[in-house]
Amino acid sequence: MTLKVITQSGEKKVQGWDVGTVHRSLWPVAAIEVYTSKEVDAVNGTNLRLKCTFSSSSPISPLLSVTWNFQPEDLSSHEPVFYYLKEPYTPSAGRFKGRVTWDGNIERYDASIIIWNLQSTDNGTFTCQVKNPRDIDGTIGEVRLRVVQKVNFSEIHFLAIAIGSACALMIIVVTVVIICRHRQKKQQEKTIEVAGTELTSLLLKISDTD
C-alpha cells in the first residue's frame, strides 16, 4: 500500500504501512485521565451537578470532545446524555431531553454537566469520556447515581413537633424541679428560724425563773 504523507519538507510516499501505523508514528498516543465521584446520592426533584475533570499531557485541542452516556440500573443499552465538540450539544430525544446543561470549562479541564429535576428513573451509572487529540485513550469516569425520595412535608412537620414538644417538656420538668427545691430550701430555712426563736424564748423564760 502506498500512502501520501504531507510534511513540512513536502509530500512523501510511504509504502507498506497502514493508516493506523502512520498515524501512530506521526502522532504518538498518550493517555488522558478522567476523574469523577464514584457514587452520588441526590433527592428526587432537585438538580445535580455531575462533576467531571480531566488531565491531559497535550495542550487543549480545538477538537477536544466530551461524551456523557447513561446506563440504567437494569443494565439496558447506554443512552446519550450530552456531547461537546467546540460547543455543547444536548439530546433532542430521550429521558434527558431538556434536562441537561453544560457546566464545564474546557480551559480549566472541567467537563461537568447539570441534570435538572432528578427522577427515580435516573438511577444508574453515568459515564464521562474525554478525548483530546493527541490524547484519545485513557480512563472513562463513572458516577453511580442513587435518587432518593423527597421527605413529605407532613413527616417533617411531625418530626419538628415531636422534637419541639420533647424540648418543651424537658424545660418544664427542669423548671418545676428548680422551683420545688427552692421552696423546700425556703421551708427548711423558715423551720430553722422558728425553732431558733422558740429556743430563745424558752431560754429567756428559764432565765427569768431563776
Automatic annotation (TrEMBL):
It is found in: Membrane. One of its GO terms (cellular component) is plasma membrane. PROSITE patterns: IG_LIKE. It is a single-pass type I membrane protein. Keywords: Disulfide bond, Glycoprotein, Immunoglobulin domain, Membrane, Signal, Transmembrane, Transmembrane helix. Gene3D superfamilies: Immunoglobulins (2.60.40.10). One of its GO terms (biological process) is cell-cell adhesion. Its main location: membrane. The keyword Protein biosynthesis does not apply. The chain crosses the membrane at residues 156-180. Belongs to the myelin P0 protein family. PANTHER family: MYELIN P0 RELATED, MYELIN PROTEIN ZERO-LIKE PROTEIN 2. This is Myelin protein zero like 2. It comes from Pavo cristatus.
